[in-house]
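Worked Example 4.2. Read the sequence first, then its structure tokens.
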Amino acid sequence: MASTDAGPRVVVVGSLNPVKVNAAKVAFELVFGVGCGLVFKGVAAASNVSEQPMGNEETLRGARGRILSARALEPAASFYVGMEGGCLDGADSIMAGIAWMVVHDQSGNEGKAQACSFDLPQEVAALVRSGVELGDATDQIFKLHNTKQKGGCIGCLTDNRVTRQAYYEQPMQFALIPFHNKSLYPQGQPAAQSDQ
């Protein structure tokens, strides 16, 4: 996947958050190689969902929404990446942190993967239920600033053994499976039409 005479292939990430841009870069380079000739660019892409997505459906829709917005801003990119963190309220009254990663190529083929979930502390969950975004709730409880562009809630809970970037890197690699294994996915994975 080297650059062409027309210039390097561009991966547009639907966010200006350095955590998301760097997670995409690490994942693509792990899958395709450090010298793969890709250039990574973050854009201010709208998710078109709530500021704090709740549940798997809305969180996945937010990741796809970021891709649609990014494509409108940068129509000539080779790949588009949408990452969306959300929360899931379980039947047992435990709230979990979740995230979805989605990748589209220029043809609209899709790869997607979900990050593993983790239980949120009750104090954080109570703030989220009251309408506070998870990053802001994390800042309040841990008395920090702008954790969503640093280690995130998962970083606070693991003493940064797992940062928000690291949390996103592995599922981003899973979302790239159809693009790395084209012989096994010869038609690609068409993007969900209902979300476009």
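Now turn to a second chain, presented in exactly the same format:
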Amino acid sequence: MPSDEEEKLHNFIEDKILVVDLTNEIKNEIILLRRSTKLKLPDSIIAATSIILNAVLFTNDDHLLNLS
């Protein structure tokens, strides 16, 4: 990867990526999702975080697309 592309990528990640801690509210939502769906733990973490943060989740994962 050329250094200018690497710098652009680094800047994009720095500006656009948010790391979210698993709060108790998110953990509780994860548990609810695991109890009520067939989602695996990683998918439950992603879905619960999106639900609690009221974030739009873009995915092509059939399991998450059919969550409603």
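Notes for the reader: Residues 17 and 27 are 21 Å apart (CA to CA). Residues 21-68 form one domain.
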